[in-house]
Structure formats: C-alpha cells, structure tokens
Amino acid sequence: MRDPLSVLTEAFTAFLFGKVETTRLPVRTSTGQAQAVYLPTAAPGLGDSGVIIGREVYSGKGYIYDPFQLYGQQLPAPHWLVLGESGNGKSALEKTYVLRQLRFRDRQVVVLDAQGEDGVGEWNLIAQELGITPIRLDPMVANDAGIRLNPLDPSITTTGQLALLRTIIEVAMGHGLDERSGFALKVAHAYVTEHTTDRQPILTDIVERLRHPEAESAEAMNVDIDDVRAWGLDVALVLDRLVDGDLRGMFDGPTTVGIDLDAPLIVFDLSHIDRNSIAMPILMAIVGVWLEHTWIRPDRKKRIFLVEEAWHIINSPFVAQLFQRLLKFGRRLGLSFVAVVHHLSDVVDGAAAKEAAAILKMASTRTIYAQKADEARNTGRVLGLPRWAVEIIPTLTPGIAVWDVNGNVQVVKHLITEKERPLVYTDRAMTEASVADPELEWETEQRAILIEQQMNGTSQSTVA
C-alpha cells in the first residue's frame, strides 16, 4: 500500500503542473523502418587543428588534417601516400593542401613538378601567384641560361658527395658498383676535393681524373696505373652523360647563384625531362641529396617535400634507398614526405619491391581516389584497408577519396574555394574540372549517399 503522503504530494503536483507521466501504446514495426529512429553516427575526426581538406561524406562535418599536429599522437610518421587514376582530383588536392599549409608561418614546401604543358610545369601558376620563380631543369637551355645544381657543391659533405656520385652511376648502370669501380671513383673524388681549392669542384674534374688517374692512387693499393684507369672507365662514361650527353648543362657546373632556399615554396620544374627515361630517377637522386644537405635544417620549420610521379623514386632500388634514408632522417627535423602515385602496382611489382614496401610502411597516411576494381583489391591488400573501403573505391566520383590515417578510415569530399579554383585547375587537367562543375554536384551528392548505404548494407532503392 502506497504512503498516503506520497499520494497527496502527487495529486497536488498534478493539480499545479499537469500529469507528470504519460502512457504510450507499443508499436510494431520492422527493423528497416525502425532504423530511422536512431540518430546518424560517424567515426571521430582527427581534431580541429590543421588545414581543412573538405568534409566527411557520412556525417557532413569538416575534415581537418595536419601531419605535424597528429605526429606522435595519432601518427607514427608524418609521411603521406596519394593514389588514384588520372582525372579524379589528386592534383587539386595536392595544390590546395600546399596553399593552405603555406598560410602557417613555420611551413615550407618543396615540389618536384614532373608534369606540365605549354613549356611550363603544372605548378607554374601557383608559383607566379606567390611571386616565386620555379627552378626549371632543362638540358636544352641549361648551357645558355638554365639552372645548375652541383653534386659536388661544398655545402654537401664529402661523404654525401661520394654517396650521390655512386647513386647516380648505379641508377644509370642498373646495378651496383663493384669494388674496383668503387675504388676508382673514390680515389678520383678524393683527389679532386683535395686539390680544387680556388673554385667549386665540378663533374668534369671527376671525369678527367677517372680517365687520367694519379700514380700515387695506384701505388697506395700496389696495383698498376692502367688497372685503375680500366676500373674507372665505365664510371667515367656514365658521368660523361651529365657533362656532355643528354643531361648536360644541369649538373656540370657550380650551383646557380640566387636559388632561394628560404622561400616558402620551392618548385623544381622537371616537365622538360622525359618521364620514362633513365634521366628522371637520376634527377630525383641528385635533387634529393642536394636538398638533404642544403635545405633540411634544424631550425624548427615544418617542411613538406611533395613528389609528383613518385614511382620514379620508389621503382628504382638505389634511389628508393636514398629517399628511405631521407625520410628517416627528415622525420627528426619536421619533414613530411608526400608521394603521388597513379597505381600501387607500378611500385610493388617493380624492381624495388623491397625498398617500396619499406617506404610505403613509413607512410602513415594514405589517400586513395577511384581505381578499377582489380587495382582497388590489390591496393586494399597491400595497404590493409577494410573490406567496405575496398568495395567503394571503384565507385568514387572525382573529388571524393578514401582516407586512411593510421587506421582511421573515412570517406572525404575535397572542397575548393573560388580563389583556389583558377590556380588548381589547368587546361591540361580538364578531366579533373568535373569536381568544380555545379551541374555535377547533385550526381556527386547522390553517389555519396549510395556509398554510405553500401557501407551500412541498406537498399539503394530508398534514394529518390
């Protein structure tokens, strides 16, 4: 029996405020209909500090990413891999990301621009907007007024110079140097650096010394001088290509005065180099080592090294080893390496599969745009993506990508501002302009809804 005081209190309360409790009849329904009762949910974001990429398609909330803010907490390494077929928005993402990063005062970016049209690289418009002159490496004009980077620049340590020379030769020859050729190169380099004091040593000096070695170098090893000359002949022929061959003029003289390594953006324009020739990995090696010794400094700046057509790096064992060291070294000094690749199969099935696996492992952030189904399955297997992400990659429309940030996998739509649009889209990238076409916005939004339903296992027939 209830307490009379409680009954009196409830009656008085009901008189003043109305009945407190209501009674609802039960409702019978199906699980398909009842799911509308539950509020939509989405995976947690990456925080609110960094640059805005766009919005997460499932929740509609802003997607913010910054490897420097996430490093050490959510990211074991600040390096980033971008994958996808041409025409899906990789180029637009890279450019807007760099422009937004440069709004922070302690950021600096180097871009290796391997694509272009009308005689200039793809990043030329952005460089002009920022008042920066790209470093255009072109063997056709180098002898007249081009840019030179000296592999024997005194700003590079003697150990670094010798390592760079070996890498250039090994890339060009397609195999490692044997002990005898390595000895001939070492004694030639030692002689040149020791006896050239009135100017910068240059590659011509090395070639000349390989062809005409000093007697004391042979005597030190108790071998004949003709043997030392024979050991260095192949090395001399390879280096002669940079002095008097198809790569002449870019690396066979003192470093060009006036290259501003303190500029917020440094663009190496490689668009005049045949991307499918051996020249490209040689260039990558030289630029990589040159930057390692002249650009990366312990000055608390956060640096981004973005490489277009990065398979030229990852597909060459010798260049991949060089960049692997650069990534390990640069991580301590605030370097984020961004590699842009069309197909993962270009590198994982190539000559440098072991080195490629090591570099991919260091990339804690992976962004995957639309790929064919077979390629998507291969990408998912290599990168360890969840099944639902692999299934939707072939259905992604331009501007939408799967982001995997150390296991935090989300689908993100990249957004571009009106001020960025003319700098991001070039005539060459017409296929990527579909992201900016208002007439296609409805189709993109509907595809995002279908992707969400695919993940949740609901029927597509509910989309109007």
From TrEMBL:
It comes from the Bacteria. InterPro entries: P-loop_NTPase (IPR027417), T4SS_component (IPR051162). PANTHER family: SLR6007 PROTEIN, UNCHARACTERIZED PROTEIN YJGR-RELATED. This is ATP/GTP-binding protein. It comes from Streptomyces vietnamensis.
